[in-house]
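Reader question, answered in our methods column.
A reader sent in the components of a multi-part assembly and asked whether the whole thing could be modeled at once rather than chain by chain. We filled in our standard form and ran it. Here is what they sent:
COMPLEX SIZE: two components
ENTRIES:
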Amino acid sequence: AQKVTQAQTEISVVEKEDVTLDCVYETRDTTYYLFWYKQPPSGELVFLIRRNSFDEQNEISGRYSWNFQKSTSSFNFTITASQVVDSAVYFCALSENYGGSQGNLIFGKGTKLSVKP
Amino acid sequence: DTAVSQTPKYLVTQMGNDKSIKCEQNLGHDTMYWYKQDSKKFLKIMFSYNNKELIINETVPNRFSPKSPDKAHLNLHINSLELGDSAVYFCASSQVGTGLGGYTFGSGTRLTVV
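And here is the structure of the entire assembly that came back:
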């Protein structure tokens, strides 16, 4: 069965520190999709990144970077030089394969990141 | 223009009442979903519709009934509301066939049953 584990329930850092949020997934599909979403205190779910299982290249977007390693079934997310505005709950999610494309999203339990000034 | 819009944003109601939450997407996506986020922030799929057809129906009380009049709309009707139904309900959409893009979520409906 598909499963996403975010072992870190809460992380607290001081502004400008780097922080890595861990995500480990389980799936029997050979084709799958991985996602990260941000949920700020205002409550909406903000899409950050989508990766398919055939693309193991790491990605960098500004202060954000993602490390996808199929060998360890991990898709970790690093924020460099964290800022107070990064404070949010971050969700890692896995999409099952459905008809050759993405299906339903299975979420991890989220990691609450608090960045203090 | 809002891509996925849900109404209402907040809903406070008494136990035993029946209520509906509406969702509309203007992205041309063929698949829509309802997710429930409980008080511990855990997000879980409830239903999924592809081109108006139900494709996922998780273990949800049958007091919850989704309705999709067309592929741009997926409404959620809840009968005989219970205290445990209090949660945030998110609607989402995606385009399954092409495998492109992610899932777009609405801003959520916070349901409080008193």
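What stands out: The mean pLDDT of chain B is 90. The two ends of chain B are 34 Å apart (CA to CA).
Send us your own complexes using the same form.
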